[in-house]
Amino acid sequence: MSISSGKPAENNTSRVIVLGNEKGGTGKTTLAIHLLLGLQAKGARVAAIDLDGRAAGFSKFLENREAWAKHSRQNIYTPPFFTVSPSQNKDVAQREQEDFAAFAGAVEKLEHISDYLILDLPSGDTYLGRLAHSMADILITPLNDGFLDVNILGDVDDEDFSVKHINPYGKYVLDCLNRRKNIDGKGFTWLLVKNRVSSLGAKHKLKIDKALNNLAEKLGAKIATNIGDRVIFRELYAMGLSVFDVLDKQTGVKATASHNEAKKEVLDLIEYIDSK
Ligand SMILES: Nc1ncnc2c1ncn2[C@@H]1O[C@H](COP(=O)(O)OP(=O)(O)OP(=O)(O)O)[C@@H](O)[C@H]1O
Ligand SMILES: [Mg+2]
After folding, report:
1. pLDDT tens column, 55-87
2. What is residue 208's three-state secondary structure?
3. Which ligand 1 atom sits closest to the C-alpha of 231?
4. Among 87, 89, 175, 271, whose CB has the most other CB atoms within 10 angstroms?
5. Closest CA to 47 of 86, 9, 77, 2
6. pLDDT digit string (tens) for 193-234?
7. CB 23 within 8 A of CB 168
């Protein structure tokens, strides 16, 4: 989808991957960072837009990366990115107009120079968030492995885990999907990613999986590969690095077997995304 023109993508525009979930703290920014650098490690041209201009965790990571590249004198790739902060205009129509212009302006500068454009969203329901959801090629919703997160999509029966009703975020995405279908007749692919999955609690996991499968079916979403709960996914943030970078003496972080598993999880997710 070409966001700046609002038309279906031409061959030379990027694939837009949006990280969205109305609930906070589920791993949107963490996955945005790792997908960006994982795709770059695979040789793709990547670019980023941080639509969470208040917290700006994605932008801060990329600024940390630029600073680390300078300080370490290593040849570290620093992707182009923009931060879009919501307009503070008191007039709603003006505010939306300003938000649209800022968003479209950022996209216009990046969509023709990247194969993948990664958009990180804030939690909650915002105009910028709706705009980004509607313009996604792939929407990724990370969920922590528990009912508190799964219920953001819908409520399920506590015995057979059948869907009782769809909750506001589920309806929000379906609404964005319908609006998108009205534009290009295709919509977007919605992927649910279980994040921070631990190796413990097999019984609980089975229940979560049943509930999530039922919700995904009802919502037309797909369940992608999982991402584990690993320190390395947060350990390198301040340096702007990831498991895809060289971890030498300068970083003070030793490469371990868990790092290779972390890398594999991200690459598996990329492979899953590319298969959609
Ligand atoms: N797979 C993971 N392993 C370990 N820690 C993780 C993982 N994913 C996320 N975290 C940690 O969980 C916290 C929340 O993650 P993150 O900030 O990415 O979520 P978010 O959805 O972007 O939050 P917000 O809605 O506030 O923007 C952070 O401290 C992050 O480092
Ligand atoms: Mg975030």
Report:
1. 999 999 999 999 999 988 788 999 999 999 999
2. helix
3. 4
4. 87
5. 77
6. 999 998 887 888 899 999 999 999 999 999 999 999 999 999
7. no
Ligand 2 centroid–CA 72 distance in Å is: 27
Domain boundaries 15-274, corresponding CATH code: 3.40.50.300
Cα 265 to ligand 2 centre (Å): 20
Ligand 1 centroid to 176 CA: how many Å?
Answer: 24
What does the alpha-carbon distance between residue 163 and residue 228 come to, in Å, rounded to a whole number? Answer: 26
Please report where in the chains the tokens 């528990």 appear, as a residue.
146
The C-alpha atoms of residue 99 and residue 85 are separated, in whole angstroms, by 8
Provide the token pair at 227.
């991402």
Name the residue of 28, 30, 52 to mutate for ligand 1: max ligand atoms within 8 A of Cβ: 30
Which residue ranges have their beta carbon within 6 Å of ligand 1?
Answer: 24-30, 52, 55, 57, 122-123, 195-196, 227, 229-230, 233-234
Those residues with Cβ within 8 angstroms of residue 157's Cβ, 6 or more apart along the chain or in another chain:
163, 164
Tell me which of 29, 35, 61, 121 to substitute to probe ligand 1's pocket, judged by most ligand atoms within 8 Å of the beta carbon: 29
Q: Quick one: tokens of 143?
A: 């969920």
Indicate the pTM of the whole model.
Answer: 0.94
Q: Which residue is it, tokens 């709706």?
A: 130
Strand order in the sheet with 46-50: 81-83, 46-50, 116-120, 15-19, 138-144, 189-195, 222-223
Alpha carbon of 185 to ligand 2 centroid (Å): 30
Q: Which residue, chain included where needed, has tokens 């920014």?
A: 29
